[in-house]
């Protein structure tokens, strides 16, 4: 769409309610943040970002590509080499990051509304989880700036040897659309805490909160060029980042398919790569589990964020004697979930993020039936405007069906029966992914044995989906490598130098 056909700014069409969100949306097209300035893309191209609840255009967004990424890298390189950020005191970096956290909280209602408009998720969840979570991430990593240590090493008496833990340099951060602000925070905050400069490429489906964050970062007084934001598509702006010879590190969250492409592109200059990719997580329920907890948690485990969650518990393993009872109880509870526009306070399940995801998930609903699975509830989209899919439970699933092997990223659960503990672990681990897993049992020994046996980066015992910024997060197998959050994130954004001093 060209600027000549800019959509109307009427809030009604967009669904925006607060004057702050309407104000932000009406300054469209949104620009790129490069070297502290908001600039249009060099090509002049823009793209639309859509409200998935009503398919209306929310705003036009600058479509950055290689030429814009080049400028952003120049700005980030200059800021890095001049030491505007890496050479200020760690205490100063702490203050800046705390200021960003404060500004996110102060503008939390607006950010939550923008997130719901752009992504579709229920507003209360956007506010409580995405926005508060993002502020919390900045606050957590603010504390790390002053706690990044090297070692003094056991030297020969004729030398004094120590290590320095230094920033990696210019970091490219490529984020997905399921938790747009939070994924940006999860990468920007540790990168900045360690003294790096960054180029953020938000997902094309949901660029709004990252752009608003860019404004808040400027308001916090972060020096120009330290944080650059280039909106655009994967094959344009994204691949320009992963191929760029002057980017030192790429941190990526998204599909396994693109993760492999990013790793391949990194060989051009051997940039560091960390990848947080897809999942097909097993949620194993033993007969002695407290079903009053296991069932609602299995539901939120697979339906939260309309199933668009990398750790979604999409394969629910249920011991065969209790299988029918489980199907019945889960189905009854899931059918009571209100599906609708995320801005409606009654909504528990919002739309899928995009037409592409909507078509993809509908494809898997058809495939499940073709493979011989039975949808006990849902199994179809909702007619009319918006990308709504009914919460779905597939029964009679076997672990070798494609709906049990491929990441669907929609509100689609697969219930798979198992015989005993050994069978549950074997089937649970029979996947190319390894992001997360859960086990439900009152038997503490079984819980710990199964937690040890599951090949996953996170295992929940008698809970699902808990997260804490102090806990490492990342994948086994094709769910990626590197651990975000906690002290492990500091490893991702620093490198170690050995210094020998001859005495
Ligand atoms: P994607 O992996 O294509 O997109 C994620 C990010 O990567 C976006 O910012 C995108 O612009 C960028 N990107 C795409 N192609 C690129 C390239 N060649 N080089 C560099 N960056 C590139 O994911 P997509 O297509 O939006 O979703 C497809 C599937 O991926 C989903 O159905 C889901 O299964 C999975 N996914 C997993 C996520 C997770 O949290 N692990 C998040 C998003 C998607
Ligand atoms: Mg893609």
Brief overview, please?
The protein has 503 residues and is an alpha/beta fold.
Instruction: Provide the CATH top-level class of the largest domain.
Output: Alpha Beta
Q: Runs with pLDDT <50, length 5+?
A: 1-9
* Total number of beta strands: 19
The domain count comes to 2
Average pLDDT: 96
Tally of separate helices: 17
CATH-wise, what's the superfamily of the largest domain?
Aldehyde Dehydrogenase, Chain A, domain 1
Fraction of residues in helix = 25-40%
- In whole angstroms, the N-to-C terminal distance is 68 Å
Describe this structure in words.
With 503 residues, the protein is of the alpha/beta class. The protein has 2 domains: 3-277 and 481-498, 3-Layer(aba) Sandwich (Aldehyde Dehydrogenase, Chain A, domain 1); 282-474, Aldehyde Dehydrogenase, Chain A, domain 2, CATH 3.40.309. The protein is 39% helix and 19% strand. The chain contains 17 helices and 19 strands. The chain has helices at 11-14, 19-26, 66-81, 90-106, 108-119, 123-144, 180-193, 208-219, 234-243, 256-265, 291-303, 323-335, 355-370, 402-405, 421-429, 444-453, 486-492; strands at 32-34, 37-39, 46-51, 56-62, 159-167, 170-174, 197-201, 227-229, 249-253, 272-276, 282-285, 315-319, 374-377, 392-395, 412-418, 436-440, 458-461, 480-481, 494-502. α3 (66-81) runs parallel beside α9 (234-243) and α6 packs parallel to α7. The termini are far apart. Bound molecules: 1,4-dihydronicotinamide adenine dinucleotide (NAI) and magnesium ion. Magnesium ion binds next to loops.
